[in-house]
Amino acid sequence: MKLDFLRSNPEIAKQLSVSLNGFDLITFAEKLVRDTTKETTRILKGLNKPEELLTRAQVSDILKVSLPTLHHWNKNGTLANLKIGNQVRYRRSDVDPALKERV
After folding, report:
1. What is the pLDDT of residues 43-101, one digit of tens each?
2. Structural domain of 28
3. Do 62 and 77 have their domain in common?
4. C-alpha span between 52 and 29 (Å, rounded)
5. Residues 32 and 64 in one domain
6. Residues whose CB is less than 8 angstroms from the CB of residue 93 and which lie 6 or more positions away in sequence, other chains included
7. Cα angle 12, 17, 22; round to 5
8. pLDDT tens-digit profile of 5-17?
9. How many domains does one find in the chain?
10. CA atoms of 88 and 80, how far apart (whole Å)
11. Integer angstrom CA distances of residue 62 from 1, 44, 83, 100, 102
12. Residue 12 to residue 34: CA distance in whole angstroms
């Protein structure tokens, strides 16, 4: 029986009884640990990536706004930027939510 079926039918899941032998239980536990480890590793690799920094032109293209609009957004706090020397950069993690708001 598929677990999705049980999740979507909680009344049936409450009435279901399952009988397992020891081997099946160990196999299930090992698969659960392997799958959880794989997913956790995937998530942690994503968290350890260095922050992607975008230029003003890239952000302008992504958000489909003009450079003066980006400047205005920075001044009023809508979209923060970083100054690296004399260059302006935007964090990808700040741009993505702004893109979602524009859609």
Report:
1. 887 777 778 899 999 999 999 999 999 999 989 888 999 999 999 999 998 898 888 77
2. 22-50
3. yes
4. 38
5. no
6. 51
7. 140
8. 888 888 888 898 8
9. 2
10. 10
11. 45, 27, 20, 11, 11
12. 28
